[in-house]
Write a structure and sequence with these properties.
Number of helices: 9
Organism: Halanaerobium polyolivorans
Radius of gyration: 19 Å
Function: Catalyzes the conversion of lactate to pyruvate.
Largest sheet: 6 strands, parallel
Main location: cytoplasm
Number of strands: 16
Order of helices and strands: EHEHEEHEHEHEEEEEHHHEEEEEH
Family: Belongs to the LDH/MDH superfamily. LDH family.
Shape: globular
Oligomer: single chain
Subunit structure: Homotetramer.
Low-confidence stretches: none
């Protein structure tokens, strides 16, 4: 780590629902001792920082304040949540052109003051914007991370836990690929305490069981759309996912998380950012794990990568 970087300082760019709730999650869990909140609307950032700091006596010591890009010069972790929000009826990929223009300004402002941090992209479409951030920032690929399918994987575990009647933290499985419509449920790797789902959960005949699992995968993929339709935006669960990634980085945990990162030569996929189980620590991306997917999952993952590449081809980057 560079001498001017503070090991426990976090900068959050974007004081909207996701950004402010992310700071709240970081604060509540004691992740980071200094958090600067940056937004184009300075008064909004100041109001959020004030509101958060008024609860500081209830949590571990932390200094939260509103600032400008110059204040992220010594941040270890920079979390980017700013951008146009996904609207009802809009896919994540519909946001590409709007948020690409926004990110070009954000990334140039970041690199003006800090070339040594880890960048964590949360704004959707997160895989496209993670790749864009890597290209624009010229940071090493291991220090550019997207929140990826960490939230999707949590949704997956949550729905499976309800289906099988077991606590979510005892469900082991991954959603991989795009954080979006082409994401892939890695069923061949999914288990409960090392036990295959069909052996653990024989609650109905095979056809019924398979239909239930297919419904779970569809519900994971479509849950964000449903939430947006009902309440306008998603922010609680994604903030918790971002806090989990942040903890892995700041505490050097070597945690396996399905973050989005630059993929080179995995499963026939190259030069695109998407999610695979990845070891995350204080270096950012330590290692992307090449797990034994079955033939169908490899094919679907390649389709997911190809779809993302088709959108990238339309961008001027």
């Amino acid at each position: 780590m560079q001498k001017n970087i503070k090991a426990n300082k976090i900068a959050v760019i974007g004081a909207g629902n996701v950004g402010a709730t992310t700071v709240y999650a970081l604060m509540a869990q004691g992740i980071g001792s200094e958090i600067v909140l940056i937004d184009i609307n300075q008064e909004k950032a100041e109001g959020e920082a004030m509101d958060l700091m008024h609860g500081s006596s209830f949590v571990k010591p932390v200094n939260i304040y509103a600032g400008g890009y110059e204040d992220l010069s010594d941040a270890h972790l920079i979390i980017i949540t700013a951008g146009a929000a996904q609207k009802a009826g809009e896919t994540r990929l519909d946001l590409i052109k709007k948020n690409t223009a926004i990110f070009k300004k954000i990334i140039s402002s970041i690199t003006k003051y800090n070339q040594d941090a880890i960048l964590l992209v949360v704004t959707n479409p997160v895989d496209i914007l993670t790749y864009l951030t890597w290209k624009l920032s010229e940071y090493p690929a291991n220090r550019v991370i997207g929140s990826g399918t960490v939230l999707d994987t949590s949704r997956f575990k949550s729905l499976l836990s309800k289906h099988c009647g077991v606590a979510a933290n005892n469900v082991h499985g991954y959603i991989i690929g795009e954080h979006g419509d082409s994401e892939v449920a890695a069923w061949s790797l999914t288990n409960i305490a090392g036990t295959n789902l069909k052996n653990y959960c024989p609650i109905c005949d095979a056809e019924c069981h398979n239909n239930e699992l297919e419904n779970i995968a569809e519900n994971v993929k479509n849950s964000a759309y449903e939430i947006i339709e009902k309440k306008g935006s998603t922010f609680y669960a994604v903030a918790l996912a971002v806090a989990r990634i942040s903890r892995a980085i700041l505490r050097d945990e070597n945690a396996v998380l399905t973050v989005s990162s630059l993929i080179k030569g995995f499963y026939g996929i190259d030069d695109i950012s998407l999610s695979l189980p990845t070891i995350v620590n204080s270096k950012g991306i330590d290692k992307v794990l090449k797990l034994p997917l079955n033939t169908s999952e490899k094919k679907d993952l390649k389709k997911s990568a190809d779809q993302l590449k088709s959108y990238l081809a339309e961008l001027d980057i």
